Amino acid sequence: MSPPGATTVSSAIFSLKPLNGHARNLVSNLASQSFVRHHDGCDMIDVDFTPDRCDGLYPATIGKKGHVKIDRSFIAKIQVSFELHKDTGEIMLVDHSPSQNCYVFYIQSDGECRDFYNFGALVLSTAANKIEITFGGSIKYRFEVEWRMRDPIDLEAWKNLATRTGQVQTLRSLPPTKRLEEGVEGPRHEFRFLLQKEHARNCCTRTTVHKCIDLKTGHCVAVKHVVDLVKGRYREQGETRKEITTDLSHPHIIEFFQVEILPDSYNLVMELQDGDLGDLTTQEFKEPQELFTNADTVGRPLLLQMLKALDYLAFKEIIHRDVKPHNILYRRINGAYHYRLADFGIATVAPHGRVRCGTKTFMAPEVENREPKLPHTTRIDVWGLAASVCWIFGLGLKGGEGSSIDAGHHVICPIWTGILEQMLGQVPCERPSAGEVLTLMFDGEGRVTDE
After folding, report:
1. CATH ID of 275-442, from 1.20.120.450, 3.40.720.10, 3.10.105.10, 1.10.510.10
2. 180-271 domain in CATH 3.30.200.20?
3. Could you tell me how many helices (H) and strands (E) the chain has, helices first?
């Protein structure tokens, strides 16, 4: 189904408004072309969405051999082009010049200015307040982008995917952005993630998550900004995130693209997901059928994927220390849930000293009680996962000397009741590891630790 308001006929997406004499002369010389149109007292070049074309745009190229022709010795056959991203529909400016001399000036919605040189390909985002494009050699052509349509491109109306030509950048297409650390007097860097909208805010912890677009690839990311209430206090936390998260690569652990440590805050750039387990109120989660059996398409995949993630962390000797529903993110892919563990703000290397941290409801007994003889190990996270599963599906949890499960109205495979109770064991050394549960209940699928 097409997105609401999507364009389905050939129409102008944006105009190139000339800003200097050379650009105005170029547009004047092209006045007979159908794509030169008059807006607000000025002739401009209109770039249309043309779904019957393989490239989806016209005019799409500027240069000696481009749709917009510039017959100058210093201009390449194709100097720059406008291309649709084949997967996201974002409009990208591509610099084809041998010297990569195209320059883009952005003014964001918050008023911050950004400059981009030598970028290869760059998103032209409707979220920006202003975009200026300058290209050429000894003579510069400068244009401003004026949007005529801000609704999503109708990718379904565009020519068949197999014959489309356009950008195919993914978040893995480019080398990861370097891990940045800015001192008090340090210069601002090129931060390639442009704010689109606020995703979530926590006033107590002074954290904000924004949905942003990666200007280099055309894909959306989440940027978590954490403000330090006491200057410098979060710096060590930011360092921990940088060291731990940049060394993790697992399909069920959220991927971090950049960790930026500032004097009084830090930013985490990560993959954008659909939400967390705290958001899931669908009927299949309210009333799962045959919970944890082979026929279960809700609880069993959740356990399997999170056990794989925890086993991988154990292999890396990392304790997450805050496994809870709000730190388990999900995305629906082809109708199925794909889960990822996130938020390594209080993660540490195992074994670790006895520090009380985490969220109380999902806190292992040795953490909550600050047991003096029990160092923290990766089995803390096993307890947190089991407690999260009980919370998600409304399973009763009775404490005391041991923890027992009250299935309530749910039908649970009996062997899983016993496994969950073991995972919730009071004594850490008697609690199974994530790898042991994988071996026992999933034939060792995805296990990376030694048996």
Report:
1. 1.10.510.10
2. yes
3. 8, 26
